[in-house]
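Please fill in the sequence for the structure shown.

STRUCTURE ENCODING:
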């Protein structure tokens, strides 16, 4: 049920044209983008903290985990409602108007677009 709700939230989200997205290559730039901001999309609110922690809510369940920056990718290990979502390194792209996109499997997998608020 939780996966269906998260998928529904992803289906409702719309993003900018791909040409607006610029790859974030280093940890310092990534931290500048997310520090003090909440990453939001339908049914999801996350805080990615400079100290390597991730906290928030997805649908009605808590999200928690850790992250690090490796070889130009955001690598995270997440738990959602107590269920392990696993470790994955993701490509990060951002727009000038405050959106950030994470694409799993080092840019080859599924993606999720968030607003930075």
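FILLED IN BY: designer on duty
SEQUENCE:
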């Amino acid at each position: 049920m939780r996966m269906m709700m998260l998928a529904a939230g992803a289906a409702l989200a719309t993003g900018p044209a791909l040409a607006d997205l610029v790859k974030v290559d280093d940890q310092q730039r990534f931290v500048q983008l997310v520090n003090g901001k909440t990453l939001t999309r339908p049914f999801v609110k996350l805080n990615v903290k400079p100290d390597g922690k991730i906290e928030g809510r997805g649908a009605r369940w808590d999200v928690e985990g850790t992250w690090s920056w490796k070889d130009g990718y955001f690598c995270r290990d997440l738990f959602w409602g107590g269920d392990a979502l696993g470790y994955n390194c993701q490509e990060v792209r951002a727009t000038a108007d405050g959106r950030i996109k994470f694409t799993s499997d080092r840019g080859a997998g599924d993606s999720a677009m968030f607003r930075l608020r």
